[in-house]
Amino acid sequence: CNSISGARSRREQVFDGEKANFLVRELRKNFDSGRTKSYEWRVSQLEAIVKMLEEKEEEITDALYKDLSKPQFEAFISEVSQVKSSCSEALQELKHWMKPDKVKTTITTFPSSAEIVSEPLGVVLVISTWNFPFLLSMDPVIGAISAGNAVVLKPSEIAPAVSSLLVNLIEQYLDNSAVRVVEGAIPETTALLEQKWDKILYTGSARVGRIVMAAAAKHLTPVILELGGKCPAVVESDVNLQVTARRIIAGKWACNSGQACISVDYVITRKEFAPKLISALKEELEQFFGKDPIESKDMSRIVSPNQFARLVNLLDEDKVSDKIVLGGQRDEKKLRIAPTILLDVPEDAMVMQEEIFGPILPIITVGNIEDCYRIIKSKPKPLAAYLFTNNEQLKKDYVENISSGGMLINDAVIHVATRGLPFGGVEESGMGCYHGKFSFDSFSHKKSVLYRSFDADSSMRYPPYTPQKEKL
Ligand code: NAD
């Protein structure tokens, strides 16, 4: 009897297709009631998130430490404060965003007026990932709420502390008739993906992006795919060397140990300049993380044994292991890999074929800086492309020649936090975008509305189409 009830309670806990369907129907009923559409509801939820951030900052940074050993300062700067600023922007701008956009009409419809009305899509799904598990969960949720939708969030099982904290926080602070969290891995995500959603925002790998898009296609559900790729940084020899080195380090090792979708994946520079760049990187790395960086408290660890093994595998490939010019040390128990620089690994090495997503930086040298175009274009379009130079013509050419999700000249990563810029990929690095007003627009339907009066009704447009009408 005990084992039967045990099996039953286990079954009750499983989040399967039936439970997913029930959840979506419940949220749809609440969405259809109009509850989430009002300005007041949206503001109440955004204010609740602000309150949550104020009251639970420590719990959030603690959970990020548990999942990634993310330094508290980094956790605050790159996750908590980013969510805070998304919320503040939405609260500040929401009235303006919600206002219909007036559009000029022409003589054809005279007299008339026209506008574009932003209406919520309905019930949306956000599937997020583990590297910035709080930010990449909450930021899309803020967009979905701002646009007046009901939303289900599925955080990543690879960051379990943040995932379970999100369940508690959202239960405690937000309106659960319209905002919910479902924890889980592939089975739970699959159950969710079988349902009909009005939009899905997915953050993660292109491999799973394809699964998400195929599932969405069955219901004609639009998707935003926030994927990754190999983000290049081209460094010309005319740069301020120290600033360049610091910014590359900040965009690689001080950014979640390189486990970031827009982290610098590899550097391209001139052959004769590479030794100078490497020595500046070594010097600044020591300033940042000390003589024994693997022990540094200011750098996150690798998220999981699987990811650790994948990275070690990249480093230990025969054609790579003798190209290490800095680092290479690893500590399997602590899941840590020292900042590692590789010089001139062959292009067919795995480390140059797949997204690194970790603390390894290959530097590729070229005869002419313009050779960078061939290398970058031989790979799928990246999520971000960086260039360090003072040469105005090179800047212009790079912007014109390289297609990428975003681009940043003379720095790395920080374009993601620049208000007013959309964030998203192109081709293999993703589709659609979000952040700020772009989140609001991505989670809204833009409805065209034309208003006419009964005046000036011309018989010209109606049959019978007489020869006189045809002449006109
Ligand atoms: P992942 O695709 O394995 O996991 C992401 C989410 O998908 C998780 O919630 C997971 O539960 C779910 N998932 C995994 N396998 C699934 C399956 N078979 N069916 C349904 N759902 C499944 O990705 P990852 O390894 O966590 O993330 C790494 C990738 O994400 C990198 O390529 C990185 O560049 C990219 N990324 C992109 C952004 C961005 O904003 N563009 C941000 C962070 C990471």
UniProtKB/TrEMBL annotation:
Coiled coil: none annotated. SUPFAM superfamilies: ALDH-like. It catalyses: an aldehyde + NAD(+) + H2O = a carboxylate + NADH + 2 H(+). One of its GO terms (molecular function) is aldehyde dehydrogenase (NAD+) activity. Keywords: NAD, Oxidoreductase, Signal. InterPro entries: Ald_DH/histidinol_DH (IPR016161), Ald_DH_C (IPR016163), Ald_DH_N (IPR016162), Aldehyde_DH_dom (IPR015590), Aldehyde_DH_NAD(P) (IPR012394). Residues 18-449 form the Aldehyde dehydrogenase domain. The active site is at residues 226, 261. Pfam families: Aldedh. GO terms for biological process: response to abscisic acid; response to water deprivation. Belongs to the aldehyde dehydrogenase family. This is Aldehyde dehydrogenase. It comes from Flemingia macrophylla.
